[in-house]
Amino acid sequence: MTILVTGATGRVGRAVVTALLRAGRPVRALTRAPVTADLPEGVAVYQGDLEDPASLAAALEGADLLYLFPVPSTAREVVAMAERAGVRRAVVLSGALADEESADDEDGYGAVERAVQASGLDWTIVRPGEFAGNWLDYAPDVRARREVRRPFGNAVSRPTHEADVADVVAASLLGEGHSGQVYTFGGPEALTVAEQVRRIGAAIGAEVRFVELTPEQARMEWYDLDQGVDHDVIDWLLDMYGASVDGPETVPPSDTVERVTGSPPRDFAQWAADHADDFR
Ligand SMILES: NC(=O)c1ccc[n+]([C@@H]2O[C@H](COP(=O)([O-])OP(=O)(O)OC[C@H]3O[C@@H](n4cnc5c(N)ncnc54)[C@H](OP(=O)(O)O)[C@@H]3O)[C@@H](O)[C@H]2O)c1
């Protein structure tokens, strides 16, 4: 039973590859850049670009199962190709915010979800909440100045360990009873931003200063970073963080991870310990 992992060099994708290898399964990994992919021994690496479905032909040929990284613009075509190639089951990475999208949004998670739901494949949709891994964006500041500058120190989220997302994906690929399921989950604890910063500090054995920016200061600093992030996206992020101060949780507590994988979800201290070297 051959499994194709797309997005295989990503945070979730790498963890999916690890989980499948641990289960003793043959893994194919898709990347646009095989030379720099640095994937584990034993993985068959295929070059392909999800934005160019024709480039996936060789990787899909003979694959039975598919982990699909979400690229909305081509999802329908990629799923159709997978079906024609003989793939039986696809597990799709989506996000907990999928429910907040409008039903005809062609650029969001829904487009990818609808593509598998309309196909003849067995499908499972995995909708994690905010990734703990988003903190890696702040790793350079923590390394250089032991400092995090962010707005909304009291905003609450349930940071989700990428290994839990990957374990849910792997269980859905390899186990039975997951067909037609939509798994929504976050991490086990609801924590403020300031508390998450404290826990990163605890993991590296150093105090990490939290500098709370006003939303306006954050807007200016993030606009200035010029990392190719659209100003509209920055405004949307600020609205979302602001709404999570004293607001309802976007991802309510659930037993999904334990029910699907048999193990409780990893907490944020665990995530920070697993990534301590990134922040030291
Ligand atoms: N961040 C969050 O809080 C959050 C929460 C819920 C859901 N999500 C979803 O999770 C996704 C991120 O997952 P992740 O953290 O595992 O990814 P990631 O670390 O951002 O890496 C994405 C990987 O996908 C591959 N990729 C990107 N575009 C591709 C394309 N056109 N064709 C082939 N491969 C492509 C890249 O591999 P190569 O460069 O090697 O080709 C890259 O390694 C987001 O895009 C979002 O949809 C995120």
From TrEMBL:
Transmembrane segments: none annotated. It comes from the Bacteria. Residues 247-280 are annotated as: Disordered. InterPro entries: Ergot_Alk_Oxidoreductase, NAD(P)-bd_dom, NAD(P)-bd_dom_sf. Residues 7-173 form the NAD(P)-binding domain. This is Uncharacterized protein YbjT (DUF2867 family). It comes from Murinocardiopsis flavida.
